[in-house]
Amino acid sequence: MKIVDIQMGDLIIPLKKPFKTALRTVNAVEDVVVKIITDTGHVGYGEAPPTAVITGDTTGAIKWAIEKHIKPQLIGMEIENFEEMMIRLDKTLVKNTSAKAAVDIALHDLYGQLYNAPLYKLLGGYRKEIITDITISVNDPEEMARDSIEAVKLGYRTLKIKVGKDAKMDIKRMKAIREAIGYDVDLRIDANQGWKPKEAVYSLRKMEDAGLNIEFVEQPVVAHDFEGLKLVTDNVSIPVLADESVFSAKDAMTIIQMRAADLINIKLMKTGGIHNALKICSIAEVYGVECMIGCMLESKLSVTAAVHLAAAKSIITKIDLDGPVLCAENPIEGGATFEEYKITLSDSPGLGFKEVKGVDFS
Ligand SMILES: C[C@H](N)C(=O)N[C@H](CCC(=O)O)C(=O)O
Ligand SMILES: [Mg+2]
After folding, report:
1. So which domain of life are we looking at (predicted)?
2. Tell me: the pLDDT tens digits for 283-312?
């Protein structure tokens, strides 16, 4: 199974509602889809979102990195020579993790097809069904309470609440949501780097004192401030999860050894794909640090890859793979099945895609 072509196209899917975090507001998924074609007629699919505020990756940069740097390294390679392809993908350029992730995902899709097995089984095969949370965008407290009630009605048992815009208002937001939904539903919060370290300690302690029962807080402070993250971790009881602070296995090692966070959020778009995400899983296993698997604003294509990883690895105990259910349409046939909170894998080879509609690869 030899690679003969790598093609790209644009995937645009409107969201059901605007997605709002402390970092950005988005109305649609606007991602780059990668299609790798082999001499045997097999096709592997991957996807890259241009999440410039987090990864630095833009649509143009993703396409250029793949066309001019990655593609020449991979054309003509045999899929069975997998390790060599992963080394080339890593070494051909630094950073550009979303472009690398899209290609890594498509290659893993083909790897599964080569051995006629679903990817999650090749990676460990721990389970085939997982349960995701759903994200509640940051808005005024009343609107967030209404959105939370709606999510609970749809069956979600865990809500991920976006905060980080204004520490005092964030406490009001969390009180309004808890009051609206009661205590049967788990609440995790994501500040997306929006607080200063001491501000984070202040607001999290207030939430503790109010008995809001927060499962964990995600990325309270700016990504590069590992000391600030540690200050928060050392001074609150709510567990702290590192998201934007951890892209690489090296970042994970540093954060864990500093004890700067209690949990790690693995996202394929930060690691550059499954190959490097597995290294973070191994490090986390060594230290007994549980991981969450997350996503950017991504469709079912790349999120299916994250589902396979989550289904394979027991160290991934928390799931934030709601990208596909935030989308108003699904142009992808095959892959994982998303029924609101319930995500199920089929036993089709690779990632199991049948068709990607509405993307022009010419
Ligand atoms: C979509 C997912 N639930 C999520 O919240 N991801 C964000 C970043 C998403 C983005 O801005 O595209 C996160 O965990 O920080
Ligand atoms: Mg986050």
Report:
1. Bacteria
2. 999 999 999 999 999 999 999 999 999 999
Q: Which one, of 131, 294, 165, 261, lies nearest residue 174 by Cα? A: 165
Quick one: pLDDT band at residue 157, thresholds 50, 70, 90? very high
Confidence of residue 339 (pLDDT cuts 50, 70, 90): very high
What pTM does this model have? 0.98
Give the class (CATH, top level) of 121-356.
alpha beta
Structural Rg of the chain based on CA atoms: 20
Asked if 262 and 241 touch (Cβ cutoff 8 Å), the reply is: yes
Quick one: which of 28, 9, 5 has its CA closest to 18?
Answer: 28
- 357: CB partners within 8 A, 6+ apart: 331, 332, 333
CA of 14 to the centre of ligand 1 (A): 16
Q: Which of 296, 303, 319, 321 to mutate to test the pocket of ligand 1 (most atoms within 8 A of CB)?
A: 296
Position in ligand 1 atom list of the atom nearest CA 321: 3
Q: Which residues of the chain are in CATH 3.30.390.10 domains?
A: 3-116
Topology (CATH) of 3-116: Enolase-like; domain 1 (3.30.390)
**Span 231-256, mean pLDDT?**
98
